[in-house]
Amino acid sequence: MFERFTKDAREVVKGAVARAEDERARTVDPGHLLLALLDRERSRGSFVLAALGVTARRDSMTRALAEARRRAGLSQAETEALAGLGIDVARIVSRVEEVHGTGAMSGSPKGKAWWGGGRPSFGRDARTVLEKSLRIALARRDRSIGDQHLLLALTALPGVPAEVLADHGVTYESATRVLDGGLDGGGEAKAG
């Protein structure tokens, strides 16, 4: 499947691996793909994000992803559902971090020996994003998989990246509208 990726999409995948390595994570997850996508410039995916005003809120998105990682990857919706059952995730995270250090639930062994050699593997959820991007490209009748398809896949699949993107105004529908020419660079609907 990787041979069907455009240069920009390949760079996002490589960037996600680099992000995971920097965090000393064992696996690449969808959050790493989103962070790598946010790093891109002059690509179709970055155009969509800029058109939807995300470029100015990039730091906010990065913080939201880091906070979710501290919660062991739980989305805000999952955290709220657990709260409805009487489980205080913030309190649990605080207690775990008291004993094991900040970020202990993130899955990244800060300050510990590297987990082994080689590159992090792609986790199940990250592979699902890559597969979904292929399905989206095929449905849109595109010949190759671009970083815009990765963005659409991240918005279409449930989880932290979709939640963070939606909180910042990026949904599957809004991204599709930009790709199909329904919004200009200022985020305004084009007059028909």
UniProtKB/TrEMBL annotation:
It holds the Pfam family Clp_N. InterPro entries: Clp_N_dom_sf, Clp_R_N. Gene3D superfamilies: Clp, N-terminal domain. It comes from Streptomyces glaucescens. Keywords: Repeat. Residues 2-186 form the Clp R domain. This is Clp R domain-containing protein.
